[in-house]
């Protein structure tokens, strides 16, 4: 089972590495980090480098695609990056094409989300809507007939990968993946969604987000 995770400049690391940490443990799974060209790309804050091992031309028939998000997705869709055509082409034969956070913007730009509900980061719902999808506040959104799953911001990619593990193998395998990474969230605060955050926290998040951009 071949899993492809595209990387690009200004990617959000956990969007890619969270699902990777789950899916690479599945039986007979191999994971390839793909991109426009091989070599290093830097994360959205520039602090961390990740390595692309294969180009889009090298990986033409993955079983699973996981498109991460990050500030770089705006540039990808704005410039018509090759990732758009690649996602559109490989989706014809994937078992599942998935996204995390603003990776859904890439799926939408590839015309895979036309008329469908989809998840993305709360800061990008307006862009997603512009590309023909219907944003939702759900953490993971499935369209199994279309073989598409989208996850909301950053950490939700782990939830999506566990569900994907169930679909690819079975529920016991997914539960085993959850145990292996000891994914048992017990956060000290309950402000992980727009509905729960409150005005003060939302204002601070928007302030930090503006600085990051």
Provide a compact summary of the structure:
This protein is α/β, with parallel strands linked by helices. It has helices at residues 13-23, 72-79, 82-90, 103-109, 125-130, 156-168, 171-180, 194-197, 199-212, and strands spanning 2-6, 30-35, 39-42, 49-52, 54-55, 64-67, 96-100, 117-118, 134-135, 140-143, 148-151.
Keywords:
alpha/beta; seven-stranded mixed beta sheet; single chain; globular; two-stranded antiparallel ribbon; 213 residues; 9 helices; Rossmann fold; 20% strand; 11 strands
Describe the structure.
The protein has nine helices and eleven strands. It is an alpha/beta fold and 213 residues long. The protein has a single domain (2-186), classed as Class I glutamine amidotransferase (GATase) domain (Rossmann fold, 3-Layer(aba) Sandwich), CATH 3.40.50. The strands form three sheets. The protein has a seven-stranded mixed beta sheet with strand order 5-2-1-6-7-11-10, sandwiched between helices. A two-stranded antiparallel ribbon has the order 3-4. A two-stranded parallel ribbon has the order 8-9. A hairpin with a 4-residue loop joins strand 10 and strand 11 (148-151). Helix 2 (72-79) packs parallel to helix 4 (103-109) and helix 6 (156-168) packs antiparallel against helix 7 (171-180). It is globular and about 45 Å long. 40% of the residues are buried. The mean pLDDT is 96.
What's the arrangement of secondary structure elements?
Blueprint: E1 2-6, H1 13-23, E2 30-35, E3 39-42, E4 49-52, E5 54-55, E6 64-67, H2 72-79, H3 82-90, E7 96-100, H4 103-109, E8 117-118, H5 125-130, E9 134-135, E10 140-143, E11 148-151, H6 156-168, H7 171-180, H8 194-197, H9 199-212
Parallel strand pairs: 1-2, 1-6, 2-5, 6-7, 7-11, 8-9
Antiparallel strand pairs: 3-4, 10-11
Helix pairs in contact: 1-6, 2-4, 6-7
